[in-house]
Amino acid sequence: MKENLLVDLSKQFAVDIVNICTVIKENRKSNVLINQVLRSGTSIGANIHEANYASSKADFIDKFQIALKECYETDYWFGLFKDTYMITEDEYKDLFAKCSKIRKLLIASITTAKSK
Fold first, then answer.
1. What Å distances lie between residue 77 and 5, 29, 34, 63, CA to CA?
2. HSE (CB half, 13 Å, CA atoms) of 100?
3. 8 Å CB contact between 93 and 48
4. What is the pTM of this model?
5. 24 to each of 27, 33, 63, how far by Cα in Å?
6. Integer Cα distance of 80 and 4 in angstroms
7. Distance between CA 2 and CA 4 in Å, rounded?
8. What is the pLDDT along the chain (116 residues), one digit of tens a residue?
9. Do 44 and 15 meet the contact criterion of CB atoms below 8 Å apart?
10. How many whole angstroms from its chain centre is CA 41?
11. Of 99, 80, 97, 101, which Cα lies nearest the Cα of 36?
């Protein structure tokens, strides 16, 4: 059940990232930062999705761990977006909360998978 929730949350999170990056790009802000957050933020869902087709438990855990690392990287880019006024404080809080929820679910899923 957590995996399905993770798939749904991470896909919506990727959509949110694409949408906010589109707005930022339209305002002629830094393409370098936009490209970085697009890569890391959308990679989260891609790795979670790929984990559903893992060839082994180790492969499953590895995909989730990669997704978790991408969550941490995405948090970093959001912080830069906020500190450089590319996004508002409210936008930052919303994105950070969504990313944190995904991260917590990933940690719980990894812990569960490792204990089995």
1. 24, 14, 9, 21
2. 7
3. no
4. 0.89
5. 5, 10, 30
6. 30
7. 5
8. 456 889 999 999 999 999 999 988 887 767 888 999 999 999 999 999 999 999 999 999 999 999 999 999 999 999 999 998 889 999 999 999 999 999 999 999 999 999 98
9. no
10. 4
11. 80
Angle at 33 between CA 91 and CA 80, to 5 degrees: 50
20: closest CA among 5, 41, 6? 41
Beta-carbon count within 10 A of 11 CB = 16
Amino acid in position 11: K
**Amino acid present at 20:** I
